Amino acid sequence: GALAVAACIGAPLVGPTTISLRQAFDTTIPFGQNVDAQIFFIARLPRAFAGALVGGSLAAAGVVLQALLRNPLATPFTLGVSAGASLGAMLVITLGVPFTLLGSAAVPVASFAGALGALAIVYFLATMRRQGLSTLVLLLAGVTLNSLFSAIILFVQYLAGPAQTLQSVRWVMGNLDVGSYRPILWALGPMGLAFVAFARLPRALNLLTLGADSAAVRGIDVLRTQRVAFLSASLATGAAVAVGGPIGFIGIIVPHLVRLLVGADHRLVLPASIGLGAAFLVVCDVAARTVLSPMELPVGVITAMLGGPFFLWLLVRDR
Fold first, then answer.
1. 58 Rama class: left (phi>0) / alpha (psi -120 to 50) / beta
2. What does each C-alpha distance from 53 to 1, 21, 34, 198 come to in angstroms?
3. Contact 243, 177 (CB under 8 A)
4. For residue 101, how many C-alpha atoms fall within 13 Å in the half-sphere facing its CB?
5. What share of the chain is helix, strand, coil (3-state, %, to 5)?
6. How many Cβ atoms are within 10 Å of 11's Cβ, its own excluded?
7. Which of 130, 109, 127 is nearest to 119 (CA)?
8. Residue 241: helix, strand or coil by DSSP?
9. How far apart are the first and last CA of the chain?
10. pLDDT tens digits, residue range 71-88?
11. Residue 102 burial class via C-beta count within 10 angstroms: exposed 0-12, middle 13-18, buried 19 and up
12. φ and ψ of 301, to 5 deg
């Protein structure tokens, strides 16, 4: 938590243009004439807040899904929600739909709608046998839907013009280029619901990792816990992707780093992952906009370059 707060405070001060924190908060200078205040509050602070929300949400979703599926390599993007969100965004970018909803741009709205659509499909497939929520079918349906949506995304990009293809490719890479607080306020609703559900899950997740039968014997409503875990993790993932695009590897890097630090108790792992995930993505975003300044890298590239070697190390360690 302290790392997340420090990152959000320090990130707006770092960039190609040096600013003074005292000057930014100087109320004697009109805001329209205070360049430091404009850079701090308009250009950089929304990005820091967006990075903290997206990073914390993806890390928490990774923890919950790894416990739900009993798979240490599960990520927030395993169940197809991210691919559905990406497909919604690709369609709007390619078709050039100019609509807004309650002041929010078309791409985040369409992305979140695509995430909800993918969530509904996977949930229906996992419960259609009326034997509860099958985590095996959930995983298989999610992976299959992920592949299907990825193929459709490639087809849409193939039909798009050069300008739309460039815009869609940059969005798929993951980017926290947030120029206002409106997308953040939009995301607070679904993320808030997801975090309320997360707060009720740690004890049940501890028992669920032992197996459904062991959890049921110890008084856990397994079906209800599985539903809450799946829906809350998917909701957090959909909102995070709508804000920053499909930023990968946070959902697998952060939970495992936290487990190395505090152990496997989800009462510690879940809140610690939220704080560390927020700090990690904010720091990665600072690196993305400063390493090759004045050119800005997509933050998803930075997280992937860090996450790829870590993922391979996990595979070797497990073997």
1. alpha
2. 13, 23, 28, 14
3. no
4. 11
5. 75, 0, 25
6. 22
7. 127
8. helix
9. 33
10. 888 888 888 898 999 999
11. exposed
12. -70, -40
